[in-house]
Fold:
Amino acid sequence: MQSFFAKSFGGLNASYYIRQFLFGATFAALILWVVGSAPGGLSAKPGLAIFVVINTLLYPYSRFVYESVVGYIMGNNVFFVNALLMLLVKAITMSMCWSFAIFVAPVGLAYLFWRNSRQTAD
Structure:
């Protein structure tokens, strides 16, 4: 069982995980701040707090899936676009990856487990 966690959850580079985790934590802080300042606060929505924590922890794996798919489709092409447009698109894709992390991350975890199991077998 320990091997499963090491091969899947430990499959990302630590610097990549921390970087993506910090971006995910930004979304979590924003959501918790908005909900906390609403009438009733966060205590009225305990399920939301659990959802936010789970999505924040899984966001790096969700982002890994997204970047892998986009990298496969786009290849090594370079596009020159307006920086503000690119930042807007990046913010939208990051928010989508965070929102759907609970559904997308298992794909990334399964791939990381498969890839790391194959590497140790070689």
Summary: The mean pLDDT is 86. The chain has five helices and no strands.
